[in-house]
Amino acid sequence: MRESDIPLTAVSTPSGMLWDWLVMPHGMTNSPATFNRRVTHLLRSVRDFAPSYFDDVFIHSRAVNGKSKVKMHKEHLRKLFCAHAQTQALREPEEVYLQG
Length: 100
Prior knowledge:
Layout (H helix, E strand, L loop, with lengths): L10 E2 L5 E2 L11 H12 L9 E2 L2 E2 L11 H19 L13
Antiparallel strand pairs: 1-2, 3-4
């Protein structure tokens, strides 16, 4: 969210205090689409093998140039994690879940 937009998200509490959202809450109009567009933009360098849908990333690996599927998958994971590190999008390492 742009810093100039933060005051536009202000909500009042029963005690009369005013609170501003520092990140876009999902209750706001178009925020899911904005979030998806942001994730897609952050992962554009790996989109050939790791398309994303909201906060899910699907890694597709196959054997190429004499490398096994496992070796290619490890390489793809390394590239994906490097993309996260470069954009600083992954702030909490414990948020990473590997299924499989």
